[in-house]
């Protein structure tokens, strides 16, 4: 399969934080953000695979700053690496200052999607060819994250995670 660039999977959306998406402190409810992330990441994975994709695991989510009611929240998702049927998608989330228009990073998340056929069986997807330095860094780290995720899910023996183990040997 011909390799594709991360930029071909770019998916962007901007949301307004509404009252039913806030917690009791009037800040964005984490669960609402997780759903937005899942949705935009699925669009990104689908753009890469051109097949039906399902969420396989949520590998990392950070909630770095509280987000106010009424805030404009922008989510940008891109496939950082594709394996046989699975794809790692990184979602960067920023909040826009409504007076100055400046953007501040508020969250980052890493989700894994798997392309499936009509029977729900995993199917092959194109590989990724990073273009920028950041894309290369994310691509390199994605293999270690996949190994960690598989170990935690009980689907890989730690001894088999060569690249992940190498990180601790430094
Ligand atoms: C995702 C799903 C199709 C994978 O099924 P499976 O039997 O593990 O399939 P496979 O063994 O062929 O693995 C498929 C890929 O997923 C990867 N994978 C499985 N579990 C993983 C995990 N916890 N972390 C990272 N990757 C994982 C495998 O390594 C494999 O990757 P590769 O093909 O790129 O090497 C299956 O678990 C499923 O249908 N889950 C439900 C999905 C869903 O409904 N999502 C919505 C949640 S509400």
Give an account of the 3D structure.
The chain is an alpha+beta fold and 170 residues long. It has one domain (6-130): Hotdog Thioesterase (Thiol Ester Dehydrase, Chain A). The protein has three helices and five strands. The protein has helices spanning 30-49, 133-152, 162-169, and strands at 11-16, 52-63, 72-82, 86-96, 103-116. The chain has a five-stranded antiparallel sheet.
Structural descriptors:
five-stranded antiparallel beta sheet; alpha+beta; binds coenzyme A; 170 residues; 28% helix; Thiol Ester Dehydrase, Chain A; 5 strands
Can you give me a brief rundown of this structure?
The protein has 170 residues and is of the alpha+beta class. It has one domain: Thiol Ester Dehydrase, Chain A, CATH 3.10.129.10. It contains three helices and five strands, in the order E-H-E-E-E-E-H-H.
Q: What's the layout of helices and strands?
A:
Blueprint: E1 11-16, H1 30-49, E2 52-63, E3 72-82, E4 86-96, E5 103-116, H2 133-152, H3 162-169
Antiparallel strand pairs: 1-3, 2-5, 3-4, 4-5
Residues 54-57, 83-86, 112, 114, 116, 120, 122, 146, 149-150, 153, 155 line the site of coenzyme A.
């Amino acid at each position: 399969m011909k390799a594709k660039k991360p930029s071909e999977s770019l998916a962007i959306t901007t949301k307004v934080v509404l009252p039913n998406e806030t917690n009791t402190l009037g800040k964005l409810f984490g669960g609402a953000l997780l759903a937005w992330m899942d949705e935009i990441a699925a669009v990104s994975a689908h753009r890469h695979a051109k097949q039906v994709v399902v969420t396989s695991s949520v590998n990392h989510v950070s909630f770095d700053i509280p987000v106010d009611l009424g805030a404009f929240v922008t989510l940008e998702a891109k496939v950082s690496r594709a394996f046989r049927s699975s794809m790692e998608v990184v979602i960067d989330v920023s909040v826009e200052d409504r007076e100055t228009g400046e953007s501040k990073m508020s969250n980052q998340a890493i989700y894994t999607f798997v392309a499936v056929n009509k029977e729900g069986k995993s199917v092959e997807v194109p590989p990724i060819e990073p273009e920028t330095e950041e894309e290369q860094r994310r691509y390199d780290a994605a293999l270690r994250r996949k190994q960690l995720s598989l170990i935690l899910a009980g689907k890989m023996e730690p001894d088999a995670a060569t690249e992940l183990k190498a990180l601790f040997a430094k």
